[in-house]
């Protein structure tokens, strides 16, 4: 088993418990500063300056501007008041400069750089340019301290840029994950809508045909037993076909079972559908105008479902002795599907509940392929459904 390197584990722990690390670091600095400062000079200013230089470092990440400002003020007070430099300054001031560069806004980081360079140069002249040294040596000392603090600031700035980049990447990953979840949710919603639409088409068509055949067989049972037997045969075939389609459709929802596939109906299956509706008791005719083209399966399924839903509505609402006509007109780059009947379509429309799934499904299927569909009563009686679909040619 691969183990995580010790340094990487420490970095993870330090990022997770930054406040604890800063408190421990500050506690050690306070202890060392107080011990070293009071061992040489027991005056109150030394204790005050030592505490002001070290205690604010406990908030160097959470409150970098406030902590850095206090340390900077204490450092300048130290420069102006104390004749000798305290040893703790060599740790506290670079730590504050690093924190300001890494964790504070740009304006505060730039201000910290100017204050650090100026204060470092002044400290070099005051504490290292004592008597016996030349002006060159004093300037060299001041330059060394200023450059050292500028280097610490640069390292802190690089660290800050890296941290901000990590935060940006983390936020970007979070947004990408959120977008992925939203896309998955949208895809699931679309799939559920498609399944609901397909289920409506299957159930409505099959049950309508079964009910029509059952009613016809019941009335014909006494006078024509052979017709009643034929109606029962049609009911059985319709039920089996509906059951197969339902199993194929519902297998999508069962993740623990293999999917069942059936042949997807298309434009070529419309004549079979019309013949099946005839056996269900509906007088229907089919006409095809123009030269048919090979279209994708999705397009063909939509055409099939539009015709199926329209004829099912005719069978349910048009009334007895109604005649329906299906016309497929192939135009250049377009297929016009029209289903008309001479029954009581207008009355059915008035009685039907608004927002029915049937007509809505027809309109959605047409819009899905960039077309449009209209449905409504005809002048003089009857009902008409007309869908105009741009016909894409199946790619080779």
Written description of the protein model:
The protein is of the alpha+beta class. The protein has two domains: 6-176; 266-396, 2-Layer Sandwich (Heat Shock Protein 90). The protein has twelve helices and five strands. Strands 1-2-3-5-4 form a five-stranded mixed sheet. A hairpin with a 2-residue loop joins strand 2 (323-331) and strand 3. The chain starts with 5 loop residues before the first helix and ends in a 6-residue tail after the last strand.
Compose a concise summary of this entry.
This protein has 396 residues and is of the alpha+beta class. It has helices at 6-16, 18-40, 44-54, 64-81, 89-103, 106-128, 135-220, 225-250, 270-279, 297-317, 345-351, 357-368, and strands spanning 283-289, 323-331, 334-341, 372-377, 383-390.
Secondary structure elements and their pairing?
Elements: H1 6-16, H2 18-40, H3 44-54, H4 64-81, H5 89-103, H6 106-128, H7 135-220, H8 225-250, H9 270-279, E1 283-289, H10 297-317, E2 323-331, E3 334-341, H11 345-351, H12 357-368, E4 372-377, E5 383-390
Helix pairs in contact: 2-3, 3-4, 4-5, 4-6, 5-6, 5-7, 6-7, 7-8, 7-10, 9-10, 10-12
Largest sheet: 5 strands, mixed
Mean pLDDT: 77
| Amino-to-carboxy terminus distance | 51 Å
Note the overall shape.
Answer: rod-shaped
What are the segments in which pLDDT stays under 50 over at least 5 consecutive residues? 257-261, 346-355
What is the β-strand count? Answer: 5
The structural domain count equals 2
Helix and strand content put the structural class at alpha+beta
Task: Return Rg in Å.
Answer: 42 Å
| SSE string, helices as H and strands as E | HHHHHHHHHEHEEHHEE
Helix % is 55-70%
Instruction: Give the helix tally.
Output: 12
